[in-house]
Structure formats: structure tokens, C-alpha cells
Design the sequence.
């Protein structure tokens, strides 16, 4: 019986992920999620009493995929350049697997930023500790001096932007060529790493 319960919950999570990513919190409907999961609405409410509780589970799942790994990398004993490379790898691998994630997060942050930031806080992520780590590397001459906020946002922007505006890039740059677009996104890992590493080399 427990196996059946777990399987049903997994189906609900998968179906809800698709609906929430496509339509956001406001546009998602519990009936549509139940239909996609192949269950009735009453059973859906048995597992998740409200759309808000289901959304929280999905949001936690999506954001929680990469954050633990990124946290391990940042807290490791690796040199700063290796940390930057590995974070970029993890970040872009996540986006390749979930290409609609940036648009989903941006939409939900604009709707209600508190959920995203409360999740980040619960996971123990502190921008201040990242900035401190980068400042220390600058003091040691490992990377060139700059505002650490710029470096963090540059890395995030280089990783996320092609995915956040994927429909535009697909049409304008690749004229609807899906294989070409996918190959371009796969190449982003090496391109972004090379670009960032050159940009942070000591003067």
C-alpha cells in the first residue's frame, strides 16, 4: 500500500511541475493537475490540501535540485577558479534539464518574492558569505579586484539569459532550428567558463 501511495504522490508532483512551470501559480488549476496525473480531484486533495501547498512542494523541488550541490562546491576547499567552473557546470546542467525554470522563477518572484527568499534562507544560503569569499580571493591576488556583486550577477546572467529568453533566441538566432538551439545551449558551459575565467584573471 505504501508503494502505491508513493507512486501516486510522484505522479502528482510530475504533473504539477509541468502545469506550474507552464502556467505559474495563478494560472494553474487543480483539476488540470489531477487530469494530467490520471487521478480524481478528491485524491489530489488527499495528498495536497491546497494549491498553495502543492506549489510549495514543486517550488522546493525545482529550486532544491541544484542548490545543495552548489552549496557543497562553495563550502569546499577548492580554489576559487575551480569553484566558479563547477558552479557554472551545475547551473547550466540544471537549466538544460529544466529549460523553463528561469522563466518560472522570474514570474513567481515578480508575483511573490517572499516564497523564493524564504526558501533560500531555509537552505542556509547567504550572499554575504559568497561576497566575503570573493573578497578574500581578491585580497590574495587570485582574481582581479571588482565588486563581488558584479561577478555573481555576471555569472548568473551569462548562465540564465539564453534560457530565460529561449523562444526569442530560438526564433531570431536559429530560425526555429531546435537541434541547433540545443547544441548552442550545451556549448554554453565551456563558453561561459572561458569568458568568466578570462574576466577574473588578476591584472
Sequence:
Amino acid at each position: 500500500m505504501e508503494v502505491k501511495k508513493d507512486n501516486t504522490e510522484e505522479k502528482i508532483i510530475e504533473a504539477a511541475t509541468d502545469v506550474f512551470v507552464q502556467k505559474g501559480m495563478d494560472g494553474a488549476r487543480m483539476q488540470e493537475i489531477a487530469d494530467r496525473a490520471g487521478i480524481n480531484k478528491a485524491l489530489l486533495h488527499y495528498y495536497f490540501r491546497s494549491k498553495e501547498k502543492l506549489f510549495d512542494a514543486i517550488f522546493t523541488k525545482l529550486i532544491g535540485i541544484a542548490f545543495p550541490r552548489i552549496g557543497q562546491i562553495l563550502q569546499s576547499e577548492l580554489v576559487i577558479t575551480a569553484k566558479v567552473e563547477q558552479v557554472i557546470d551545475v547551473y547550466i546542467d540544471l537549466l538544460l534539464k529544466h529549460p523553463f525554470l528561469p522563466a518560472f522563477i522570474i514570474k513567481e518572484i515578480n508575483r511573490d518574492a517572499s516564497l523564493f527568499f524564504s526558501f533560500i534562507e531555509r537552505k542556509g544560503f547567504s550572499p554575504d558569505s559568497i561576497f566575503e569569499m570573493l573578497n578574500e580571493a581578491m585580497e590574495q591576488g587570485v582574481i582581479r579586484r571588482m565588486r563581488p556583486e558584479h561577478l555573481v550577477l555576471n555569472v548568473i546572467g551569462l548562465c540564465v539569459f539564453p534560457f530565460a529568453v529561449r523562444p526569442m533566441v530560438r526564433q531570431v538566432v536559429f530560425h526555429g532550428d531546435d537541434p541547433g538551439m540545443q547544441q548552442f545551449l550545451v556549448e554554453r558551459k565551456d563558453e561561459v567558463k572561458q569568458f568568466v575565467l578570462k574576466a577574473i584573471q588578476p591584472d
Q: What stands out?
A: Residues 65-199 form a domain with the Tetracycline Repressor; domain 2 fold (CATH 1.10.357.10). The CA atoms of residues 56 and 86 lie 28 Å apart. The chain has two domains: 2-59, 65-199.
